[in-house]
Input
Amino acid sequence: MADPGHYAGVLRLIGQYLDDARAQEIELVDQGGHFTVSWQVMGPHRQQRNFRAFDLAQLLADAQGHRGHADQPRRLAPTIAEQFRTIGTECDRAGVEILTVRQTDEGLRITLFEQGCHAMWDVSLSEMQELIAGQRAMRGATGALALAGV
Output
């Protein structure tokens, strides 16, 4: 659904939705015109939802309406939104297409399409925390440069 270069924001929005749902055992599949996401919550049944462009626009409007309204405590583990944004940013930079994202006990397993070939990218939780920290630092440096007029 999203093209390389546009994953970070789209995946962050879906991740925020999944954080709010307290989702576990997540699987995201790019179906071309939409993302299909399934997850487990407390109980025996899996949940599933399709995310199309208009769903994402609504999630974005909801997120913007709630900005700054809640004091969320800092979590020790990265949120799903942070993890999805991070892999989205990395794939945007590399110009690769995301086919699936699956949550595993060790972290995330991403299936990619790169230069005509399928590839797997396994990201452990510790690797994810390093990637998140690096991206936060880059966003902070970019913001500081903009404020300094550079």
Q: What stands out?
A: Confidence is low (pLDDT under 50) at residues 144-148. The CA atoms of residues 140 and 146 lie 10 Å apart. The chain has four helices and six strands. The two ends are 35 Å apart (CA to CA).
